Amino acid sequence: MTIQEYNRSVDDYSDRLFRFVVKSVKDRYFAEDIVQDSYEKLWKNYRNVDGEKVKAYLFTTAYHTMIDRIRKEKRMVATDEMPVGEEGPSGQFNDIREKLDEAVQKLPEVQRMVLVLRDFEGYSYEEIGELCALNESQVKVYIYRARVFLKNYIGNIEVLV
Q1: Options 3.40.50.2300, 1.10.1740.10, 3.40.50.2000, 3.40.50.720; which CATH number does 1-79 get?
Q2: Residue 18: pLDDT above 80?
Q3: For 45-81, what is each residue's pLDDT tens digit?
Q4: Which terminus of the chain, N or C, has fewer Cβ atoms within 10 Å?
Q5: 38-70 burial string, b = 16+ CB within 10 Å, else e?
Q6: Domain 87-161 falls in which CATH fold?
Q7: pTM: predicted TM-score of the whole model, two decimal places
Q8: Torsions phi, psi for 87 (to 5 deg)
């Protein structure tokens, strides 16, 4: 990979990489750190990375960095989870989006990542497999399981409205 390809990768992929990470961690500053760390790792290793595969390298690196940081924080600080949404007078959530985000956060890490990449970012099964180091059938299974969990967790749409 050349320095020009590195600079082009910053222009081409930094926004998508940031959106991918921020949808998973829900913290803008934490996501910025992960994206910066991913590009730093690419810079340190740019001679060994193929310019054609830089996108997969960046997303894979960001994914693994994010998981490592989350695990490290879980070990360091044991905190109670904050409630995601406020309850209205009837005891139901006022915002459907908050309920959906809450449900997505309850998914296992791998299922959450593949679901976000597919349904929120629009990547193909093949691209998700490359980014997460999974084969295409594993990606499909994880997405199916995530969707079934969400369907069971949220239940009937009338409950939310």
Answers
A1: 1.10.1740.10
A2: yes
A3: 888 888 788 888 888 888 888 888 877 776 655 444 4
A4: C
A5: bbebbeeebeebeeeebbbbbbbbbbebbeeee
A6: Arc Repressor Mutant, subunit A (1.10.10)
A7: 0.54
A8: -90, 140
